[in-house]
Write a structure and sequence with these properties.
The protein is an alpha/beta fold. Helices cover 53% and strands 16% of the residues. The protein has eleven helices and twelve strands. The mean pLDDT is 89. Bound molecules: adenosine-5'-diphosphate.
Length: 428
C-alpha cells in the first residue's frame, strides 16, 4: 500500500516510518505545506494522513480532488483530541481520527484496519467495474441476438412466400405437362398407326427405299410415344394419381416375355441376354403393367449403356425380406447358406422376390448412384445414347416404392451396373 504523511511533529514522522517499514508499505512524507500541496495534486496512493494544526480547512480543495479519484484514498487525521479539530476533520470527510501521543501498537492496529478497508473498497470497485462491463457485453449481445432473430423471422417469412410461389409454379407446370403430353399422344399414336398400315402394304406395294424411310419414321414415332408416356406417368405421379391395379403376376412368364421383347435390340448391339430364373418362383400380387414397365426400363438401360459384345443378366429369386435388416447382401448370404445346409426349397418362408438386371457396361460413378433415381437426372459423363429424358429410373422407383418394395444400384465404373429390386409377394 502507498501512504503519504503530512506532518509538523518529528515524533509523528518517526512513528509512521517505523510502521511503514515494519509492514512493507510504500511511504512518503511532507512537512512543507507548499510541497505537500503540489504532491497531493498528482498523488495516487491509498492512504493520506494529515496531522492537524491551525487552519485544517486549508486542505479542503486538495481533499475534495482526491475524493473524486478512482480508486479513492482514505483520509486519516492526527490531532490532540481537540473538539474543534475533530469536528473539522469530520467535515472534511475523514475516515478516521487518531489522537496523539501516538502509541505504536494502537497506530499499527488502526492503520492496518483502515488499509484493509481501502483494499476491500478497491476490490469492490474492481468487481463493480467488471460486472458493469459484463452487463454491457450482455446488453450488446442481447441486442445482437434480437436483431438476428428479427432477421431470421424475415428470412423465414420470405422463404414461406417463395415456397408457396414455387408450389404454385409446380402446380402450373404439372397442369401444363399433363395437358401438353395428352394432346401430343393422340396425334403421334395416329401417325404411328398410319405408318403401320403403309408398312404392312395395305395401301399398295412400297419400294425398298420407301420402306426404309417409313421404318425410320415409325421408330421416331415410337420414341416420341415413349417420352410422352414417361411425362404422363410423371405428371400422374406428381398429382398423387399413381393407381396400382393388383393382379396375380408370374415372374417367370413375364421376365421371359420382356427378354423376348428386347431380343432384337440386344442382337443389334451384339449383346448376350442371359436369363437366370430359380425354379418354383412364387406368384406375386402386383400391378403387372407397371412392374413390367420397370423391368423394361432396366433392361433397355442395360442395352443402352453396355458396349457391343457385352453381357446382360436378368435373374429372379425368392427372398425372405426382414425390413429391419439393412444389409441385404449379408442377409442373402445367410439365406443361401441355410438353404444349402437344410436343403430347404428356395421359396420356403420367402415373402418377396428379388429381381436383378446386371450388365458389363460403362458403370455409374459412385457420386451419381443415388441421384439417377431423381427426376430428369442423367449422368453427364456416360451418355452413350442421348435419347432419354432421365425419367425412367425416377418412375421405376416410384412404382416399386408404391408396391412397398425397394430399388437400388451397385455399380463400378467401366465394369458394369447391377440394378436390384425387391417386391413383396403381396401388398402389406
Ligand atoms: P434415361 O432415359 O436417361 O436412360 P433413366 O432414368 O432410365 O433415364 O436413367 C438415368 C441415368 O442413369 C441415365 O441417363 C444414365 O446416365 C444412368 N444409367 C441408367 N442405367 C444405367 C446402366 N445400366 N449403366 C450405366 N448408366 C446407367
Amino acid at each position: 500500500m502507498k501512504i503519504l504523511l503530512i506532518y509538523h511533529d518529528p515524533t509523528v514522522l518517526a512513528a509512521f516510518e517505523e510502521f511503514a517499514s515494519k509492514f512493507n508499505h510504500e511511504f512518503s512524507a511532507q512537512s512543507d505545506i507548499a510541497d505537500a500541496r503540489s504532491t497531493l495534486k498528482n498523488y495516487n496512493g491509498n492512504l493520506i494522513v494529515i496531522e492537524t494544526g491551525p487552519g485544517l480547512s486549508c486542505w479542503q480543495n486538495e481533499i475534495e480532488e482526491q475524493r473524486n479519484r478512482v480508486p479513492r484514498p482514505s483520509f486519516v487525521f492526527l490531532g490532540n483530541m481537540c473538539t474543534d479539530e475533530i469536528a473539522q476533520a469530520s467535515e472534511l470527510g475523514g475516515d478516521a481520527y487518531i489522537s496523539k501521543p501516538l502509541h505504536d501498537k494502537l497506530l499499527a492496529m488502526n492503520l492496518s484496519s483502515l488499509l484493509r478497508m481501502v483494499q476491500l473498497e478497491n476490490d469492490l470497485n474492481t468487481a463493480l467495474e467488471e460486472s458493469e462491463r459484463v452487463q454491457n457485453e450482455l446488453k450488446t449481445s442481447l441486442e445482437g441476438q434480437k436483431e438476428a432473430i428479427a432477421e431470421k423471422e424475415l428470412t423465414y417469412r420470405e422463404l414461406l412466400l417463395a415456397y408457396s410461389r414455387l408450389q404454385n409454379l409446380n402446380q402450373q407446370k404439372n397442369n401444363f405437362l399433363a395437358t401438353a403430353t395428352h394432346e401430343l399422344r393422340t396425334p403421334v399414336t395416329v401417325m404411328k398407326g398410319y405408318h403401320r398400315i403403309l408398312l404392312d402394304e395395305r395401301l399398295g406395294k412400297l419400294l425398298p427405299e420407301q420402306k426404309e424411310v417409313l421404318q425410320e419414321s415409325e421408330q421416331s414415332c415410337t420414341r416420341l410415344i415413349k417420352i410422352v408416356n414417361s411425362l404422363l406417368d410423371l405428371s400422374r405421379i406428381e398429382a398423387g394419381k399413381l393407381e396400382l391395379v393388383y393382379q396375380s403376376y408370374d415372374v417367370t412368364t413375364n421376365l421371359k416375355m420382356i427378354v423376348t421383347q428386347q431380343k432384337d435390340a440386344s442382337t443389334r448391339k451384339r449383346l448376350s441376354l442371359i436369363l437366370r430364373l430359380e425354379k418354383g418362383l412364387p406368384q406375386v400380387k402386383c400391378d403387372r403393367d407397371k412392374v413390367n414397365q420397370v423391368l423394361t426400363n432396366l433392361l433397355e438401360n442395360s442395352i443402352k449403356y453396355t458396349p457391343s459384345g457385352g453381357k446382360i443378366y436378368i435373374s429372379a429369386r425368392p427372398y425372405l425380406w426382414e425390413k429391419r435388416d439393412s444389409s441385404i447382401a449379408k442377409r442373402l448370404q445367410v439365406q443361401e447358406e441355410r438353404r444349402r445346409r437344410t436343403g430347404e426349397s428356395s421359396n420356403h418362408r420367402c415373402n418377396a422376390v428379388m429381381v436383378q438386371v446386371s450388365d458389363t457396361g460403362i458403370g455409374i460413378p459412385p457420386e451419381n448412384q443415388q441421384e439417377i433415381f431423381e427426376e430428369f437426372s442423367q449422368v453427364s459423363s456416360n451418355q452413350m445414347d442421348r435419347t432419354g429424358l432421365g425419367l425412367g429410373l425416377a418412375i421405376s422407383r416410384r412404382i416399386i416404392n408404391a408396391h412397398g418394395g425397394k430399388i437400388w444400384v451397385d455399380s463400378q465404373m467401366n465394369s458394369g451396373s447391377r440394378f436390384t429390386f425387391l417386391l413383396p409377394l403381396s401388398p402389406s
